[in-house]
């Protein structure tokens, strides 16, 4: 257990150092950067060690695993849902999470608003954009999202805080940069349409978070760089 604690704390410090170095080269302040430690497949103890090392935000991909893990992790961090959300699991997601980053349709947003209202809750959400065009990925099409933003804004129990995207599964840096640049451009367009509350840009994971910083990301979803390689994929 002590070894796990040391390794996670050390990994978080290394990630922070890389973020600081990148931000310094960009002339940016690190104060506005949020690291979301993605605990998918890792035990509750790993989540606890990340909190002990200073992380305030953790993320999960799947409702079933989150329902088992979240109650065991104390003190409670801010929990983000970052995986695809099926409509029949919306009620549970609203109960479990503080923020849903993977809202990928008007219908899903409407369902979240309805369930949040029934619980007397205002749900923080991000709109997921399929910036890579990969068919296996969820998300609004880039050409669609600005057309539906007014409809989304009218939903009463949502706080639409930003955009989220997953870069393409490739080692081609140019393709990743293209995806991040497109999302950044959409973010700036929507920010003008929605106002100052829309200020979160969630891009970048363990393999590309430094590159995401170059394109304005201020929410980084980092799993393996903090917790180590996953042995299983639930």
Number of separate strands: 8
**Rough outline:** globular
- Total domain count: 1
N-to-C series of helices and strands? HEHEHEHEHEHEHEHEH
Q: Show unreliable segments.
A: none
Indicate the structural class: alpha/beta
The end-to-end distance, rounded to whole angstroms, is 23 Å
CATH topology: TIM Barrel
Number of helices: 9
State the helicity in percent bands.
40-55%
- Biggest β-sheet, characterized? 8 strands, parallel
* Backbone CA Rg: 17 Å
Physical arrangement of strands within the biggest beta sheet? 7-6-5-4-3-2-1-8
Percent of residues in beta strands?
15-25%
Structural overview:
With 234 residues, the chain is an alpha/beta fold. It is built from 9 helices and 8 strands. The protein has an 8-stranded parallel sheet with strand order 7-6-5-4-3-2-1-8. The two termini are 23 Å apart. The model has no long low-confidence stretch (mean pLDDT 94).
Tell me the layout of helices and strands.
Layout: H1 2-26, E1 34-38, H2 44-52, E2 57-60, H3 63-69, E3 78-81, H4 90-96, E4 99-103, H5 106-118, E5 123-129, H6 142-153, E6 158-165, H7 173-194, E7 200-202, H8 209-214, E8 219-222, H9 224-227
Parallel strand pairs: 1-2, 1-8, 2-3, 3-4, 4-5, 5-6, 6-7
Helix pairs in contact: 1-2, 4-5, 6-7
Q: Descriptors for this entry?
A:
alpha/beta, globular, 17% strand, 234 residues, TIM Barrel, 9 helices, eight-stranded parallel sheet
Brief summary of the model shown:
This protein is an alpha/beta fold. It contains 9 helices and 8 strands. It is globular and about 50 Å long.
